[in-house]
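Structure tokens please, single chain.
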Amino acid sequence: MCHLAVEKALKGLYFERLRETPPRSHSLMYLLNAVGIVPPKKPGKFITRLSEASIPTRYPEDLARVQQVFTEGVVRGILADSKEAVAWIRAQLSP
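Here you go.
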């Protein structure tokens, strides 16, 4: 759900900036590039990492392995970083 929250925030920014319906894409990197913004280092690294984790966590072939990798602590960190990324995206909107 964190990927989805960041994706929707980027699509909202896309619409505000370009006044077009956002593309049917789940690629966070594509959306960042389409909007023409470069995030600061921390949210940028996180958005890249979140993009890479999306497919394996959304459609896990090996659920037990995913559960080992994404421990409670890891997931709490992802949630906190997602909130920061959405806040940064929101700050890019016009006042």
